[in-house]
Design brief:
Layout: H1 6-13, H2 23-32, E1 41-48, E2 60-64, E3 75-78, H3 81-89, E4 94-96, H4 98-105, E5 113-116, H5 121-125, H6 128-131, H7 149-158, E6 160-164, E7 170-177, H8 182-198, E8 209-216, E9 222-224, H9 226-230
Parallel strand pairs: 3-4, 3-5
Antiparallel strand pairs: 1-7, 1-8, 2-6, 8-9
Helix pairs in contact: 2-8
Length: 231
């Protein structure tokens, strides 16, 4: 059995067992119990009452967080030469086509998001074995396959995230940093939940949102009172 560290014990002691915290309390508490020397991410886990094995109950979408994620997102744009200038002007870290496709074939994936154009997808599709397992494959549903590459880059840099329910019916997402004010964490969580609510499948029966937890990179999870987030 893994031995609990001193900091872990202190963090657990501050969380009341069985309590569901108001989102404002939870945001302040996650900052208080985080003792990492780096600026840890704040994560949200939402358990849904869906069966993701059924296509009509899949929950997937995008969300633009009002205060961003706090992360420096590295963006690669695979586009035709006429789109390169606008992609660079929008803040893309890497812009090109064939040279980057060859690099990816060689195993290079040192980016967080890849944006491309519909006409380029046949070439990108051939990279599925490399990009798929890393969650880097562009997808029209997440806005990363588009003719307006400049807009897509701007949105990603501003804090746009995409998410997908896993096989256990849980959505995981990073929605900020511990260095954020508690109010900003609350705003981001509420926006994220509101998007999930809008995506409720018509085939989903019973309770849709079963539980919400927030945590930082290395902290215990804090059970959030869903009603305080919904409000």
């Amino acid at each position: 059995m893994t031995k609990l560290t001193k900091n872990r014990k202190l963090a657990l002691a501050k969380i009341e067992a069985g309590k569901q915290y108001d989102i404002n309390e939870a945001a302040a508490l996650v900052k208080e119990i985080t003792t990492t020397k780096f600026d840890a991410s704040v994560d949200v886990d939402v358990r849904l009452g869906v069966d993701p094995r059924k296509a009509n109950q899949m929950v997937r979408g995008v969300c633009t967080l009002p205060h961003g994620t706090g992360k420096q997102v590295r963006v690669l744009v695979l586009c035709t030469p006429d789109k390169e200038a606008e992609a660079k002007a929008a803040g893309a870290d890497y812009v090109g086509l064939d040279e980057y496709i060859e690099k990816i074939k060689g195993g290079w994936t040192d980016v967080d998001v890849i944006i491309t154009m519909p006409a380029i997808m046949p070439k990108v599709g051939a990279l599925g074995r490399v990009l798929g397992p890393r969650g880097l494959m562009p997808n029209p549903k997440s806005g990363t396959v588009t003719m307006d590459v400049a807009k897509a880059v701007t949105e990603v840099k501003a804090g746009k995230i995409d998410f997908k329910v896993d096989k256990f019916g849980i959505i995981h997402a990073s929605i900020g940093k511990v260095s954020f004010d508690a109010a900003k964490i609350v705003d981001n969580v509420k926006e994220f939940i509101s998007v999930i609510l809008k995506l409720k499948p018509s085939a989903a029966k019973g309770t849709y949102v079963k539980s919400v937890f927030i945590s930082s990179t290395m902290s215990p999870g804090i059970h959030v009172d869903y009603k305080s987030v919904e409000a």
